[in-house]
Design goal:
Keywords: Cytoplasm, Repeat, TPR repeat
Structural class: mainly alpha
Main location: cytoplasm
GO cellular component, one term: cytoplasm
Number of strands: 0
Subcellular location: Cytoplasm
Radius of gyration: 21 Å
Helix content: over 70%
Order of helices and strands: HH
Strand content: under 5%
Shape: rod-shaped
Distance between the termini: 52 Å
Length: about 80
């Protein structure tokens, strides 16, 4: 005969509405900073692309800029949901 053992469930702390709003505002600030940082890096990559000739290096920079664009889109989605 076997017995199922479940991990001890931790008691969840009840947050007040003010604590939830405060935490959400902190997350929004962090996402805004991350978005700004990503946009700055993306702008730098775009300028680099303009200086490079069409070769493997330019292809790599294009790939990096596409990844950053997707990241910015996901950050903006998170910001939209947080607000």
């Amino acid at each position: 005969m076997s017995t199922m053992v479940y991990p001890h469930e931790e008691r969840l702390e009840k947050l007040t509405q003010e604590e939830i709003i405060s935490s959400t505002k902190l997350v929004i600030q962090g996402l805004e900073a991350l978005k700004s940082e990503h946009n700055s890096i993306l702008q730098s990559l775009v300028e680099t692309i303009q200086c490079l000739k069409k070769d493997e290096e330019a292809s790599l920079v294009h790939e990096k800029s596409n990844l950053l664009r997707k990241s910015v889109e996901m950050i903006e989605l998170g910001l939209g949901e947080a607000q």
